[in-house]
Amino acid sequence: MKIEKNKILTSLNTFKIKEYCEEFIKIEDKKELLNVDFTDDFLILGGGSNLLITKRLKQVIFLQTKGIKIISETSDDMIIKVEAGEEWDHFVKYSVDKNLYGAENLSFIPGTVGAAPIQNIGAYGAEAKDIIQDVEFFNITTKQFEVFENKKCNFEYRSSIFKYELKNKIIITSVTFKLSKLKKLNLQYGGLTQYFGEKKNITSIDVRDAVIAIRETKLPNTDIIGNSGSFFKNAIVPEQKLCELKAKYPNIPFFKAAGGFKIPTAWLIEKAGLKGFKHGNAGVYNKHALILVNHGGATAQEILYLSDYVENKVFELFGVRINKEVNIV
Ligand code: NAP
Q1: Full residue range of the structural domain in which residue 307 is found
Q2: For residues 73 and 79, is the Cβ–Cβ distance under 8 A?
Q3: Do 72 and 59 share a structural domain?
Q4: By alpha-carbon position, which residue is closest to atom 37 of ligand 1?
Q5: Based on the domain organization, do 232 and 164 belong to the same domain?
Q6: What is the pLDDT tens value at each position of the chain, 329 positions in all?
Q7: How much distance in Å is there from the Cα of 56 to the middle of ligand 1?
Q8: Which of 88, 262, 285 gets mutated to test ligand 1 (max ligand atoms within 8 A of its CB)?
Q9: Which atom of ligand 1 is nearest to the CA of 189?
Q10: CATH of the domain at 139
């Protein structure tokens, strides 16, 4: 365990917000968590990729535990345990290099493995919950390590028990995945169907390459433009609201989803004329309206102002409330 005082966090959050924390604790072995003196206001930091830091933080726990281990295998699947501090995409690459199926659609998502179950990360029709067998965590109150099987994690669209009920009560220390040795492709999303066209004999490596190529054209590189991926969640509306919107905007995209119909928030923001819109040093990304960017030196307040502005404009125009996906601390 390494402790630093008054650490600057600019390079540790992908939005590149210049903020400090009073106490910065780097954990490289999960057993070190037993010796942490947790304050009443701490933040667990992994990749810092789904985060907007709005104030000086008291205590940051920087989880850097590494390791990928095969636990067991059958002729059909392989069980792999991954430490929370591993980069998510490192694990995805490891799995496709072994010709396994299940993680490939989730390629190139920034962040750590420990963060993945919290918002049940998803992309191109796949979700982390589809391959998670169980999640191990450190319970801060009891100082015990516990394991929740998939069902107990209450996974939902971009949500889980860790995001709400257990927030600030636990630290995810490892995730165990079940990946298939049998070919199981998930190519339902338009982007992938178009990419492959008539191509046959597609493997998980091909899907990973496709996802990376598609994402690279739309998503800003955080080393060049600070951002935290999708800033907003997609909107879910009831059928009646969808009918109203369809009458006014016949080309509105929508998808059946749990709880109603999903409307891509990027479409709503773009239709509101806000793609590329700027407020001070903060902006709506000009290639993807779901992403807010730091054009250089933006403050968290500028980003928050911009996000509220976008939310209000979308509501005024469509009567649809959109919500932030990013963790604001
Ligand atoms: P896209 O392909 O332009 O589609 C726009 C939205 O429509 C997506 O958000 C997606 O919802 C939804 N969608 C598209 N095809 C669908 C289908 N066949 N069935 C159900 N819903 C469908 O999206 P994109 O922005 O380029 O992103 C592609 C994928 O990467 C999406 O799954 C997105 O969630 C993921 N992504 C995640 C982040 C992040 O930071 N978390 C950032 C960028 C992209 P869903 O979002 O529910 O899939």
Answers
A1: 226-328
A2: yes
A3: no
A4: 123
A5: no
A6: 999 999 999 999 999 999 999 999 999 999 999 999 999 999 999 999 999 999 999 999 999 999 999 999 999 999 999 999 999 999 999 999 999 999 999 999 999 999 999 999 999 999 999 999 999 999 999 999 999 999 999 999 999 999 999 999 999 999 999 999 999 999 999 899 999 999 999 999 999 999 999 999 989 998 899 999 999 999 999 999 999 999 999 999 999 998 899 999 999 999 999 999 999 999 999 999 999 999 999 999 999 999 999 999 999 999 999 999 999 99
A7: 33
A8: 262
A9: 18
A10: 3.30.465.10
